[in-house]
Amino acid sequence: MTWGAQPTQARQTPGSPADAGAAALHKGDTGAAVTQFSTALKDNSLTTDRRAALLNDRGVAYMRLGQSKRAIEDFNAAVQLLPEYAAIYNNRGNLLLSLGLLKEARKDFDRALVLAPGYAAAYNNRAGLLARQGEWTKSVGDYTHAVKLAPNNPAPLSGRGRSHLSLGRPHAAMRDFTRAITANARFAVGYRDRAEALMQLEDYDGAIEDLSRAIAFDVNNPAIYLIRGKAYLATQNVASALTDFSRAVELNPNLAPAYEVRGLAHAMAGTNEAAFQDLNLALQLNPRSSVAFAYRAYAYKLTGQAEIGRRDIENARELDGERPEVYWAKAEIEEALGNADQAIADLRKALRLKPGMQAAIVALERFGLGVEAERPVGRKGTDGWQVYVQNNRFFARNNFYPRLSVPLERWTSANPKVLSWQVREEPFKGVGVLRYESGVVKQGGKTIRIVHAAIVDLYYNRVVAIELDTKGQERSTWTWGNGKLTVANLDGATDVFDLRKGRARTTAAGGGQRLYRGPNGEVWSPWAEGGLPKPPPRKVRKRKKPKSLFDLLFN
Questions:
Q1: Cis ω before 355 (30° cut-off from 0)
Q2: Domain that holds residue 421
Q3: Is residue 158 part of a domain?
Q4: Whose CA, among 177, 291, 498, 545, lies 20 to 30 Å from 530?
């Protein structure tokens, strides 16, 4: 939440109770702030707007103290005295939002923005409310307004990134999370959120790196340990995963999701007693957790008790039957009971709900089946590019670049279309830009076309970033020079990519430090097509271990 500005401070008399209250509130001493503001409000000579401002400030202090009733009373009194003061509506909206009164909170945020159309905090807070209601597309719009008004504030950038993640746009999310961290290098939430995007892009090492940074800045946050534990599981580091899950439980003994995932890890490791102990405790803490029932069903299957596991699956389906974890666990039970056709159908459903869920993919392979086959969308487009779809994920490929697959993140339900392909010359040789139509929307009776551009490094088969290029008549500004690309986006932020001068942080899968030239400074391609030179000799690397069930489940 973002609180309203407190313009009262400019009119305070140095050394006055109001001045002391503002200073205490700024320092986080909310108890002292309430005392000082109360003293200031006893002054019968206060003007109406001054009294309203002090009531607003005291309402914020009460809110931070958890005294909601007193806070709402102060906000209501302030509104009656000064109904045109936007900050009061913003702050009361935050209080109502925290109390779960979403409809009333929405009215307050709307009113604040009518009174102050350039109020970044109100846009940010209304966006958070919309995200909470699952209106992700609308929340992106409000966060974008907040970013344009306050481009150096990491909060709306991080919020918009989370909405992008919910809409299945991990590259867009990565871009916003990186911007938030750039704005504040100690922004623990930004590192945590970027790690979740990296996990969606299957870069677990990068996720662990970001989560470790987040922990350094917020050492007692159990949620960060929980997420890092999942990332460790995906890299087969079970010991570190269990350590993180246990640390999360130590910090918050009532954190049911930590017991759920630790129970699953124990089940996969064969420590059955510990598995059931954790999963039973998770259900005591949250009897309505469909995931805990699903994981316990799987644990029963591993211990040869599939019939008992079936009862847990029934409970899970009654609570939330549309979770991919539930369909996956149900398929495991059906397989154990000899119901192959039903197991296959359940696995297909799990993949529709969560494309790329490796546990479901591996289970299908046990039946000699694969995932839903990719299929071409429309005709082959510009310069040989073809759009494909698989499990509702769209991507573009070109036979000329056989190892490259470009994800096409959509902004509406319309299928993406490749519009143009450009390969740059020196000093950006090997850098390509694939522009594609990512959606079409109606605004004011007009059809607005949204175009995104994927920046591609052909030498390393890597998507560097996916940028918003045009929206109707609006265009982002691209500046190429001195080995760098600078994109001034329509979404209120500017990105700089150091493409041909050593290492550069990217927003592609990996998101960390990526080298765009060869190890000795040479330029090369992993294949010998298109007139590009052959690759230099490479050291033989040890073969990676095959994926385990740990990383398969947490893809």
A1: no
A2: 375-515
A3: no
A4: 498
